Sequence to fold (277 residues):
Amino acid sequence: MLKAPPGSCDCHIHFFGPPAQYPVSPGNPYQPPLATVGHYRNMMRRLGLERAVAVQPAAYGDDNRCTMDAAAELGDAARAVVVVTPETSDGELERLARLGARGARFFMLRGSMMKWEWLEPMSARVAELGWHVQLQFDGRELPERVDLIRRLRSPVVIDHNGKFLEPVAPTHPAARALLRLLDSGRCWVKASAPYETSRTGGPRYEDVGALAKAIIKAAPERVVWASNWPHGAEQHKPDDAALLELLLDWAPNERVRNRILVDNPAELYGFNKSTRP
Fold:
């Protein structure tokens, strides 16, 4: 098993609390399983992880309480990515920043409460706080979205190797659009969740893995790794250790792996050596 180096960060996880305390948003299609800080700490110990980024799940809409409470419980070892809208006040943005939020999530798949027309003005607002925007949408739409993404004032983090709902080869026009965004120096990608879109399946996810390798080769300094724990509504949940071990294939060079696991997250989310638990 790949041993995570000191300071390793899991850059995309979700927390779900007791329904009475943290009700899901109206219209959410399922009740997520309980996924607490205690549960996640067990996984951190197993994999040797020391830092984490709590990402607001779609199930809670723009009610960020569960995410921020979990980040507070994890303390200096955690940062957060939240959901904010044009109705979110400047004061609330500043409060979230003080509590460890470093990004605004735009989950743009079917059923999302977010709107594409909010992206550019919200990027301008959160850029003032030093945040990024985190995007998840079908990567096959990239050719029609790339100009908008290039205009954003904040850095951009794209989820899950581009989240191509139908996997594409690195030579596909949409994949080339993603690689061009990486060339801009302001775009980051999460090497994560291949099981959500792969058609070849585990344990190696060769179809998604081919693009992950191309992304890492193109911009190893702007890739971060994530488990996507606790894996949402997946009926057959992947082994988190096996997901970490994919980096042995995607990034065979140890220095590159350490950059993906430690140095890049420290830069993107504002960790430093003094914040290690």
Summary: The beta strands are 9-13, 51-55, 78-82, 101-107, 132-136, 156-158, 187-192, 223-226.
